Amino acid sequence: MKAVVMAGGEGTRLRPLTSNQPKPMVPIVNKPCMEHIIELLAKNGLNDIIVTLAFLPQNIRGYFGDGSSLGVSIEYSVEESPLGTAGSVKNAAEHLDDTFIVISGDALTDFDLTEVIDFHKSKDAMITIALKSVENPLEFGVVIVDEDRHIKQFLEKPSWGQVFSDLVNTGIYVLEPEIFNYIPEGAIYDFSKELFPKMLARGKPMYGYPIEGYWQDIGNINQFLRANHDALDGKVKVNIPGIRLRENIYIGEKLNLDSIDNIRGPALIGNYVKIDSKAKIQPYSILGNNVIVKDNAETDHCVIDSNTYVGSGAKISGSIIGKNCDIKPAANIYSNAAIGDECSIGDHSMIASNVKIYPFKVIEAGAHVYSSIIWEWRALSTLFGKDGVSGLVNVDITSELALKLAMAYGTTLDKGDQVCCSRDESPASRMIKRAMVSGLNSTGVNVRDLGVTPAAVNRYEMKNGRAAGGIHVRVSAWHPEVMQILFFEPPGSPVSASTERDIEKYFNRHDYRRAFYTEIGKIRYPGRSTEEYVEGLLSIWDVDRIKNRHFRFVMDHSYSSASLIASRLLAKLGAEIISLNTFLDEDKSAAISRMESDSVRMQKLVLSVGADLGITIDNAAEKMFLVDENGAEIPAEKALFLMVKLMAGSVKEGTIALPLTVSGLAERLVEGTGVRIERTKVSQAALTEAASQPDIIFAGSVTGDYIFPGFLPAQDALMSMGKVLELLAVTEKPLSELVAEIPDTTLLRETKSCPWALKGAAMREIFESVSEGENVDRRDGIKVFHREGWAQILPSPDEPLFEIYAEGKTLEDSQALLEHYSAKLDVAMATHEEQQA
Fold this sequence. Notes:
Elements: E1 2-6, E2 27-28, E3 31-32, H1 33-43, E4 48-53, H2 57-64, E5 73-78, H3 84-90, E6 100-104, E7 107-109, H4 113-123, E8 127-133, E9 141-145, E10 151-156, E11 167-175, H5 191-201, E12 206-210, E13 215-217, H6 221-233, E14 243-244, E15 249-251, E16 267-269, E17 274-275, E18 280-281, E19 285-287, E20 292-293, E21 298-300, E22 302-304, E23 309-310, E24 315-317, E25 320-321, E26 326-327, E27 332-333, E28 338-339, E29 344-345, E30 350-351, E31 356-357, E32 362-363, E33 368-369, E34 389-392, H7 399-412, E35 418-423, H8 427-442, E36 446-452, H9 455-463, E37 469-475, E38 482-489, E39 493-494, H10 497-509, E40 523-524, H11 529-540, H12 543-549, E41 552-556, H13 562-570, E42 576-580, H14 586-589, H15 599-609, E43 613-617, E44 624-627, H16 636-650, E45 654-659, H17 665-669, E46 675-680, H18 684-691, E47 696-700, E48 706-707, H19 717-729, H20 735-740, E49 748-753, H21 756-769, E50 775-777, E51 782-786, E52 789-795, E53 801-808, H22 811-836
Parallel strand pairs: 1-4, 1-6, 4-5, 8-12, 15-16, 16-19, 17-20, 18-21, 19-22, 20-23, 21-24, 22-25, 23-26, 24-27, 25-28, 26-29, 27-30, 28-31, 29-32, 30-33, 35-36, 35-37, 36-40, 41-42, 41-43, 45-46, 45-47
Antiparallel strand pairs: 2-3, 6-11, 7-13, 8-11, 9-10, 14-15, 34-38, 37-38, 38-39, 43-44, 47-48, 49-53, 50-51, 51-52, 52-53
């Protein structure tokens, strides 16, 4: 006997789960619902199957193919236009010349279908409908039968006053092919609403067969969750993938977890899932294949589809998450919420109960969403952030994204242009860089592959005019799972805002240039790029002065690839160096936390060997931190002012660039010299842009980033190392004494959370509250000058928060200013929230 699986439904009430996939493909315990139906058919000996398709037919065809992987034979019948339930089966009539069974692909059941078929044959029926007794028949078609199970009446979705039976139509029918004589050709026609009432009126032999077993229509979000929970509880006999352990915990293959102590059953953990040791997997959690759950995240009574990332501290309760979603740290998703495929839910955001987020949406960090988001889409206009393009490895930053990103970048360049590509030692960086090299070549751009090397070498290549641009791929110093892709342009600066917009334009439009086969870009491996960089550094330092000082210092390389270059440099400086944490191969260094510099060991070593100082560079070889001869770490702010004072004393004239939020002590330190201070916006990009100006001799920030534009208009820890040795060589004073000469500042800082939606209005309220007579700097946020000092309110470009800085003549003045503007910000946010309400 043949079976017909009706799989053409759109499932509008199940959206957003069915926005981009047919209803029969929604997952029940990590398998499409229709797969459970096909397994049921096979179990009942029904191996010859016709599947009727309408909505997104290729999704089903692509998954099931010819059915051989499930031990059945599948043929397909596709509706060119909607035909209804009966019309869709009539469309497949050429395959149905004998008794056949019809079953829905989007309802979960474990009925003994052989029972229904045997009953049908015993009654010599034309139509037999499988009936199920349910508690609440209002949502279904009620069927009334007599003692001999002849159908007497149909009631489609009755009211309680019309309910004379609790037997409902399950959508499972055993039919004879002569029914096709009563179904019009090419018309929309329904079994329960049209065909069956017509056949009943004509007195055709129609029977209803009440059957025991599980049956659940999956028509809405609640029914979908119930079907998944019932499967875990064993209420429906289905094949759950994985091995069953205690408490009905099912686990798949090749999991990455320390133990199952943090998993409470019943639960299903798919293949290749990674669960951190401090995550909590509560009962009725279903995790699809390749799901990642980070420390302190919690899942409870939820379904999370494949390839989704759940960030640290996120909470998912009673809700549904689609495929390929990115749930950022500390996000909260509440009961009956449904998130479609490929959505990104921002840090500290909240999705309220019953909210639906349709596929491909981006919810900003800190957002509180109380109503469904269907059409709106915040496109990735923030593809570029403060650190180039960044995101979680293989979640936000994938090989596919890298390929398309490089194609978009290549489209902004001319065919035949050269781009320098480099990376850090991480295998993830290697993967992303290779994808980007391919993308560039496909647009006709040539690549100078510098291999594993610091970004400064890449920048130096551009300064020397050897490339039209550069790309450096690295793992973030702040988070070992975050990948950063940096873009450079001559003379080694980050690409301009206009270039970023062009890249985003081509990326979002998928409008890439594709080179003709004779124009495909080439890859070259320059042999002397590192040697030329070393020669450049040695030429700009006063090497003789450093040699004559006979420094002894400890250097912590933080496992940076720059240590391979540093060894060549240090040999030329006549210094005695004790090196820590030199470069390791990529397999070993991948396991090392980038931010864990061995500071205690450094301090002890400086003291024990009698070193003049200790120098730490970060893994990216961009930041530099100092330890004095007593083994004391020099605070980053003090180190910056030390550099300002030393630079001002080393030249006759020039300009030093510092962010607006750096203490006014800088101006006092350069008084009486030919050097002046120029203030910039509070970003690395703004500091780098300022450093490109011809009169700038130094630019720096309190994060350890120092720029010496005479060499490169960008931060470079090796350049900073040599320059600090050169400046210290001029004086006989120990480093601790030089630092002690720098006065303490009264600068205070506070961060304040603010939802994205309120930031603009809050800034307007603050701006309007400032008196006309007050001196205000509006270059970046609002900086207000008072007689007792200044305060700056700065909205973060990347997070839902404000930063407030205040500096008064005394700490008490600073505290008063900070509290004053913090209160103003509270009032501004509260005012706008009241207006919205």
